[in-house]
Amino acid sequence: MHLPHPAPPTDEVLEDCLQAIHRLEGQGGPANLREVAAFARITPATASEALRDLQDRGLVRNGQPGSVTLTSEGRRQAAGVPRRHRLSERLFADVLGLPWDRVHDEAMRLEHALTPEAEARLATLLNHPETCPHGGPIPAPDGSLTVPPTRPLDGVPAGTRVWIQQIIEEEATLLRYLASLGLLPRTELRVEEVAPFGGPLLVQVGDARYALGREVAAKILIRLSSEQGD
Predict the structure, then answer these.
(1) Domain contains 124
(2) Which residues neighbour 131 within 8 Å (Cβ) at sequence distance 6 or greater?
(3) Tell me: the pLDDT tens digits for 61-72?
């Protein structure tokens, strides 16, 4: 009895795996099969097939034992995924008027369907934005990325004025909560107090004050007010 061969990975799965490796490498760690599968939300068996396909295409190569790394062409193609995703988020937010807590899921559906021509026209329509609605930098067409120096809000001492640069977790409930407090990218705030022993931060936004848990504050990347315009 011959078992049928599994269907080859779709282009969407291959792009998700490329993006997973790109993200994992950006975090400073090797990309192994288990982590790639978890990021792409696929089974390890499917991830294994996808990585083999990507290796045959010259987009990944074996790295440390049990891990893979992107080639230069793989890195260029991987950067195209967040570019299309973040441009799509801008389309849904700026043109179609969807709230920022819904654009991520909508962009996930559109990012794989954009052709290079459609991507270029979309960027022109949007006047070549530098960031997505959540503050994430948008890679250039050649895959290069300019990332400003940032730090998480939970590491900022009391008495410091900062600007919100990016919300790094695009989970809808979190985004709705932050929006209700006015904690959006390009918003200035002041850290009033930092409670000891891992307690919350008291921040001032305009005339309002809010207590933020450390877990939430860690998902907000900031720049010091003195760094604005560098």
Answers:
(1) no
(2) 86, 137, 138, 166, 185
(3) 887 777 888 898
Give the β-pairing of 151-152 and 220-224: antiparallel
Per-residue pLDDT tens digits for 12-32: 888 889 888 887 877 666 788
Closest CA to 18 of 69, 83, 85: 69
Strands (DSSP E) found in the chain: 31-32, 60-62, 67-70, 151-152, 161-167, 188-194, 201-205, 208-212, 220-224
- DSSP assignment of 78-96 equals HHHHHHHHHHHHHIIIIIS
pTM: 0.77
Residue span of the structural domain in which 32 resides: 11-70
Domain boundary among 26, 48, 70: 70
Those residues of the chain that have pLDDT short of 70 are 1-7, 27-29, 226-230
Domain containing residue 200: CATH number: 2.30.30.90
The domain total for the chain is 2
Residue 181, burial from CB neighbour count under 10 angstroms (0-12, 13-18, 19+): middle
